[in-house]
Amino acid sequence: MTTLTPQVRDRSVVQSPKMxxxxxxxxxxxxxxxxxxxxxxxxxxxxxxxxxxxSTLGLAKTAGNxxxxxxxxxxxxxxxxxxxxxxFGGNDSTSSIPWNAETRLARLNGVVAAGTKSDVDVSGxxxxxxPVVDPLxxxxxxxxxxxxxxxxxxxxxxxIRTGRYFDNGxxxxxxxxxxxxxxxxxxxxxxRLDTQPAIFIGEQSFxxxxxxxxxxxxxxxxxxxxxxDGTAREFFALSAPAEVxxxxxxxxxALLANESMTVSESGAAANMVQIALTPDDPESLxxxxxxxxxxxxxxxxxxxNALFVVLGAVSLLVGGLxxxxxxxxxxxxxxxEIGLRRALGAARRHIAAQFLLESTVTGLLGGIxxxxxxxxxxxAVSASRDWTPVLEGYLPFAAVGLGAVIGLIAxxxxxxxAAQTEPITALRSS
Amino acid sequence: MSVDxxxxxxxxxxxxxxxxxxxxxxxxxxxxxxVDAFKPSNLTINQGxxxxxxxxxxxxxxxxLHLLGLLDRPTTGTYLLDGIDTGSLGDNARAGMRxxxxxxxxxxxxxxxxxxxxxxxxxxxxxNRMPRKERRQRxxxxxxxxxxxxxxxxxxRTLSGGERQRVAVARALVTEPSLLLADEPTGNLDTEMSGExxxxxxxxxxxxxxxxxxxxxxxxxxxxxxxxxxxxxTLHES
Lengths: 430, 238
Description:
The structure holds 2 protein chains of 2 kinds. By secondary structure, chain A is of the alpha+beta class.
């Protein structure tokens, strides 16, 4: 046997134990890989939690996007202007909408079509399509009368079945012409225009110019007699338009109807539509536009998220408790090993560091696997539904970090417990 | 009560400096009822000595082992290891002393089952920041000394009991400690394997290592050049 070479060191100096970080990593890796089955089971809780969290957040985003892209484009491009309670005209029953609203709005960028629309008070006059007054009143109907400007049909995305819609020329001349909604036309028994039919409202006759086929908005037009503004003013003393309907470009509604965009001369916040229509008193008008895409998307995401994030958080909590539990069991089971390491010169902090690192890395692994599975879930679900998968770029990375943090927190108590183990107890327990 | 072994000491063994000096060291476990596990005693072990401490179970052997191994603190007296008063040392310093000056051999080997033989031996040097290359070389050398250079990459499970204990001895040697402290090193081994271990110890002794072997086995005890017996927490030089 070879002779002992005495170790060169000063025997009178007490050295504190030291451990290199690489050694710590080595011990951690060996500690984890030495029990692969346990590692898998420990990480499983975090894997499930992170998977749930990532996939729910991702699917919420994906679904939100999906719902929005299916969202009715019709509502998205619609603006309605009506008189408000504010403004100088306050309690005045007359609307401040000008007769030439259509022309004023046409100048604005983003406006596709605009038109005024008002209910006409015919003082209870009945409508009929025959000149003779039937004492039995069989052919007379109570049909609502609506006055519009020439551009309204386009603004409500309507189409004409036969004939034509009146234009602003008819209005200016106050021609006694009307266009019938299809339901109104049926009630009045008018189906063709080649006979140049006329209808009577009260005693006044009106030539029927056309019959509406359908409208995308304002369905009350379908069951109404529609006449030019000027005609209504002339025959039924219409004082001012009641509403303006605008069909805007996609995305232009916010620009046109959002009050923060422009400031009126008086200094009050006003939007472009208000200023175009009533520059002297923008606040006398109220504009209504549907929410923008972003708002709807956020709403949908918010709803879905609130539900599922709770679910994900609960599974994460369970995952964290799982790590804490298994690590604690592991610490108890590895008590002899702890004793040995202490006998071999490990300080308490080395023991704590090793167990803490093991649980953190377990959480980290769980986070990596969970984030991957979460992303896969999103892609799989999207593929099966023909959706476009949408995911915040930072989410998978944040999820991995979250896994590590959970591991760290979960490992704290077991690690401290391990560090407190007295070497004697630890060695004895074998 | 104290047993004074001092007069017998200086004449013993090779006349190296004292590695271990117990001065009126005692250990009482607070009760109730309080137990005097190890009664205040004196014991000196000099460098190069091969000492066996024999006693039946419950005699205080383990308590003495824990005191000598810095795994426990005495309630009375002074314990000098390499001339350093261990009573004044904090937890960290004691851990450092264990890591560099004491090599432990346990009855149940205490090997890490999922690590190779070589890694098990290297583990003893992890906590004193030995450079990796040197660490490996020393571990290989230590395993060579216990005759296991052909088992470096084996895991402990695949080894016989005697081989396992030799791995543990190599691990205790690798830091070149001041004292090799063995606790019933043959307790889990049959006669033949015990023989293997005792031969290893003989070899270490002749190479100048200081050994303290705690046992209840007379055969093991008689291999040592000096026997100390412990009965009811009291030391007797025999």
